[in-house]
Amino acid sequence: MNMKKLALVLLVTVIAVSCKNTWSQEDKDAFYQACTDEAKTWAGNDSVAKSYCDCVFGKMVQKYPNEQDALEHLDILAKDTGLIGCKVQVQGR
Predict the structure, then answer these.
(1) Block mean pLDDT (10 aa), the chain, length 93
(2) d(Cα 54, Cα 22) in Å, to the nearest integer?
(3) Could you say which of 15, 50, 51, 87 has the lowest number of CB atoms within 10 Å?
């Protein structure tokens, strides 16, 4: 996923959920839906798309444990090499 698409996925998450101070199940579900929809366009199958989104979400939550913090740093997340590296990681399987 390129940086623009990652930013779009994260923006969809912003729109889809209300601003909260934690990652609720609803927030996670909205992220995964947007992420997997986009990842399926290049991943080839659902399993690779899910692995990619697991990687991105895990790294994002590690960096920003609260959803509100992540939303405030979308520009940084879109350029985060760790998140970008998730695509390389899952494609190498």
Answers:
(1) 64 53 86 94 93 95 91 89 91 78
(2) 18
(3) 15
